Each structure stands twice: as C-alpha cells, then as structure tokens.
Amino acid sequence: MADVAGRGPRSLKTLPRRLRSRLRGLRPVTVRARATAGAVAVVAVALAVASVALLGLLRAGMLRNAERDAEEQAVAIAQLAAGGRLDRMRAPLHGTDFVQVVNARGRVLRATPNLAGLPALGPAAGARRPGTLFHTWRIRPLGGEHRQRVVEVTTQTPDGLVSVYVGTSLRDVDAADDTTTAALVVGGPLLLALVALVTWRVTGRALRPVEAIRAEVAEISDRDLHRRVPVPPTGDEVARLARTMNTTLDRLESSGTRQRQFIADASHELRSPLTVLRTQLEVALAVRDPELWPELISGALEDTDRLERLCSDLLLLARIDAAQPAASVPLDLGGLVRDAVDARLGDRVPVRVRAGDGVVVEGSELWLSRVVTNLLDNAQRFAAGRVELALRTSGPPDARTAVLEVCDDGPGIPAADRERVFERFTRLDDARSRDHGGAGLGLAIARDLAAHHGGTLTAEPSPAGARLVLRLPVLPPGAGVH
Question: Which of 31, 139, 223, 301 has fewest C-beta within 10 Å?
C-alpha cells in the first residue's frame, strides 16, 4: 500500500487503450474549437488568479483599516492609563466594538458594557512586555458568527503594567468577502461564456474564407484545373494563402496542359515512323522482285533508327522530369567540347572550335556531351557554311561562370521565337521534312540538361545566324578533373 501511495499520477500512455481513445475523442478537432477552448482556458486561468488576488487585496485592505482604527483607540486609552486617568475612558469610538483593560494580575480594570462580567481576554499584563500585538479571536459572547480583530497595547502605569484590548468585528470583512466571492462565482462563468461566444464567432468569421478555399479545392479535379479559389479582400494571411493556392493551381494547369500536349505530340511523332515502317514492310511483302528488297529494308532500318532515337529522347526527357540524378564529377568543359567535335565524322559544315583548358565544371559527362551534341546538331542543320564554338568564362573570381557560345550563319531565330524553340516538339519551319528537321526535341533536352546542372541555355541576338549560349557554374580552382 505504501508503494502504491508513493506513485505519481499516471501518464496518458499508461491508461487502458479504450480509455485513451475516449480521452482523445474529447479533444477539440477543429481549429475553431481549439482556438475557442484555448481562449477560454487562458481567460479562466487569468480570472482565477485575478479573483484570488482581488479577494486577498480586499481583505488585507479592510483588515488594515480595522486595525488602524482599533490601534489608534488602544494607544489613546494606554496613554490615559499611563497618566493615571483611566477613569476618563469613554465608549468605543467609531470603527471599534469593545475595549478591555487588564492589570498585571489579570484583573479587569475597565471594560465596555458588552464585555461586562467577562474575564480577561488575554493573559495578565505582567506576562507581557510593553508594545503592540494583533490577534484574531472568536469571542462568543459578542456573537459566534464572526471573529474579532483585537489590538493589544501593553504600557507602564503608576500601578504597574496594564494591557489594553480594543477590538472590532470582522463581519464587514466577511460580508465583503462573501459578496465579492458570489459576484465572481456568478460573473466568472458568464464572462467565460461571453469569451467563448465572441471567440467562436470571430474565429468562424476569420476561417470562413479558409473553408471556402477548402471547399473549392475539394471540387477541383484534373478535368477543371481552370477553376480558382476565392481571394478575400482582407489582405491578411488567408488572402495570401488563397493567392498562393491560385498560383499553385496555375502551375498545375500549365503542367497538365504541357503534359497533354507532350503526350499528343509524342503520339503523333511515334505514329509517323511506325506508319512509314509498316508501309515499307507491307510493300516488301507484296513485291516479288528480290532486287528491290535491299532498298526497302534499308528504308525500314532508317525509320527504325529514327524511331529508336525518338524513344531514347523521350526516355531521357522522362528521366529528367523525374529528377533522376546522374553521377556528377569535375569535368574539363573545354576538353569535353573538343572531344564532342572530334567524334563527329562527315559533318556537312566544318566546325571551328575555340576552347581552352582550365574551365572545370561539375556534372555528368554523358549528359553534358549530349548538350554539346544537340547544339552542334541544331547548328549543322541550319548553317549555310559556318559553325563556331567559343568557350570563355565570366563573372568575379569567386563565382565564375562558363559561357559556351554556338553560332551558325543560317537564317537565325526570330526574336519572338527565342523561347519557343526550347519547347518540346517545336519546329519553326513546320513545312520542313521530319527526316531533315528532327522531332523538335534536341534544344528542349539541351535546356533541361543545362538546368539540371544548375545552368541556363538561351537563344540570344546575333548579327547573322543563330547564337545559342550555354552557361554553367565553374568550380573553384584546385578541383580535380575526372
């Protein structure tokens, strides 16, 4: 039993599972309910503390007033006794209820009528030292309902020590306590109910736009991403939340539109070579002349190669969109550019390269080589007789940027299309043959790979032809090269 009694209160985890679930069920589940409960709890604690302080200060103040009146009269009577004029003592003054004077032998020398015939209230004066003491007694002959606050003043007289007792009833103090307590008991719950009502209504009004946002978002599906949540004209956090939600919906709608367009374009691009391939195979089956079969098979292989390249590009785009990282190592960008140019045989237009060593970037060798290859393919496709690659650095020493410019002397890119050329399946000359123009994925892949490496790829003005600029962050000096 002693061990049980010494245990502290059990935590919620030690309670039975069913009881814990019931206790959790009592917790407010909505923000509105939690805010109301929190406000009521805070006000209740503050009200309890204020009530205790108020009652204590009220009682202390009234006791000080009663003691002051009683002490003044006790000192006055003690002065009369010290001068041997105790017979001049009068009835209690205003604010006091009784007076009693006791000598050193415990004999009552003087007393007010309401204490007539009663023994000494305290010990004999001989047992005291001169001074002032305060007592709280319940003197039954004066009425047992209330206690009395008694001031005792002991003084030296010609006949020896005497003690003067002057008291006042605490009925007024008790009555004030009772009245104040009753007011707090009645007014406290009313105040808490008012706080709960005001907090509930104010919180409900503040959260009404949030509920409207939630209801609107709950009704939005992938088929109606054009819908937007209402923005309250308050300019507060809820309004900012609504604007942020609409911005997110804008991005979702734009992403959904691009995804649907991408699927449609990919389907179209895949259907074309498949249709041609099927036609060639059907012709090969129908033709009985063996001499025509090599030409038909060669055409089928070309379409198969084109289909394979397209599938490879689509898979690479899917991998980039899925943010699947590639192994990154420090690379000499100048050497990588020269290797990419040297690996190309039989280009229609010769390529002039100006790329020195010492420009070290971090990235995937395979992916950055793909960026350079795609830029070269695009320049070769449109150049009339010149393709140039120039590598340099720019920026402050502690934040240098590698700048690779790929220029050609072709028809160039109109200013209005300098962003559109990086969209997937985009061809500026729609009448161009797909066999020569590609699927329109090269620059889109190059830009996405540049962004994956923390860089940018832009089409910038040029006096003649197109000018594509790749920018990548340069590693600080001392980085090892893979």
Answer: 223
